[in-house]
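Course assignment 3, question 2. Fill in each field.
Student: A.L.
Task: Predict the tertiary structure for the chain below.
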Amino acid sequence: MEEVASPNNMLPILAALAALLLTALFFLQKSKASTVASAAPSPAQVQLDPQADAAYLANCLRPTSSPLDILYAIATTPDQVALTSKSLEMAEEVRVKKLAYLNRAENGEAARRRHQSMEDLLDGGSWAEDDDDDPAAVAARKAEEEKEKEASALAKATGKDKTDVTKVKLEGVDDGVLGQEWVLKQLGVLGVWPPPSSDGIGGKQFTTIVGGKKKVVGALDHPAVKRNLIMTMGRLNARQLNTHPELLDAGPKGLIDPTYFQSTMEYRKRASMLLEAALRMACTLRSFRLASAVVDAMVMFKIGLMAVDDTKEVEWFRDLMMKQYGEGGTPKLIVEEKYLGVPTEEPEAVESKDGDDKAAKKEAEKNKIAQLINKTKQVTTTDEKMALEMQITRQHAESFTKEKLMQCQKQGIPPQIGMQAYRESWFILVRAKKLDGDVPPTDKAYGSDHLKLMHENKHQLYEMLDSNSIKSFEKEFNASSSSKAENRIVVGWPFVIQNVAQKAGKVKIHLPPPSEAGKYEFSVSIKSQDFLGVDEEFCLVVDVKKGVEDTEAKKEK
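Answer field:
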């Protein structure tokens, strides 16, 4: 049976996630550079600083951050502001060029009318120019026309065709065109502008250029920051905006300002990648509350919601899934055969020989029994690792597959190609608490001293944090014993399903055993990064015995 997830398509957390953090941000910046080179109109190459962007984001995050706080932080990172500033600058260039063109056209029309009036004063006869039939004059005109054609072709090939600006519909210039100001007005009507619960960014200061001079202003007074927040709120309220009669009427007529709406698509790509980086940060800092909030922010941003815990929104989403995918189309993972303990070997598939199905069946049962016996082994403090194993069934697999096949047929896309684009992401967060005492703070995986260890090891993420950020996470883990366990992640693990038709499979996650013997309760949370109201949670209790260290193996190390 094909597995739902394997180590090849999963990212281990803590050490591995920490190593991936700046790598992800580096590739994000490369993605920005390549993306902005292809869109039109788009920001030109901008000087980006992944290190500064990561440090800013890390110091905006807190264990208490809400999904909105996280999205506001992403909207205001230095690189996000720099890219949007450049986009606004280029949009203004387009506006100036178009106004100049319209002004010239208007003046030209007035001149033409004046010229026509002069001709009307004359006898209306045909007045030929002296050189109309002169071969040299005709040749000169042809040469000039060819030169203009070549220059026009070159301009189009290099993206410098000045005539293109006449075709760009701009809000505030062309009648009936919708853009940023229209979105801002609708956000006000919906009661989500200014952005709600934005205390975290309300006191932040940003530098902009006013009249050729630098000026420090608040978030909503900075043009690029304001636009990023408008695009964020627009995305979270996309359902209301996209179904608005004015937008539905303007779309088919081409009355959409591309200097705004093109920017929103680029912004969504960048924000999604920064959300992934924020999740890695949360897991490296081992904050369950922050990691959960980041995943919730992902769902809100992807679907277009102001909150994930609104019962009306959950009901709306379920109804939508039912309408689109039919009965059984609501996404759900059914988790069965849960096991946490000594890692087990998967039974080998047994093929029948000479059609002897009974022998093959007997051998398979024998292997299964051996696996079950292995699961009864005692977990000890000196084991190399433990394993969380789950058999998962995707309730929605069949309904999703049928709908995707129908979509491919309607669009004339070969199913094998159309199905390749499918991606369904889930994130597993594991916590643990000791039921018969406290966990030693020095336990690397289960203790509360992980920030101290990050400091001693000069961890890259820890080095980015300012004193206030460090204190906020220290407070999170220096609380009472029970809340420490509730708030601290032992392991965070993503798994991605890329085969829409996959019905079932096994997920196996490795984690270290505790260093202190005792009874532990492990809480497993499975959160969707795509769907609303489908999260799963369960607990498993494991009795860990004191192990005997292999002194010979220790000497060899």
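Instructor remarks: The two ends are 38 Å apart (CA to CA). Residues 1-44, 120-132, 155-160 have pLDDT under 50 and may be disordered.
Grade: pending
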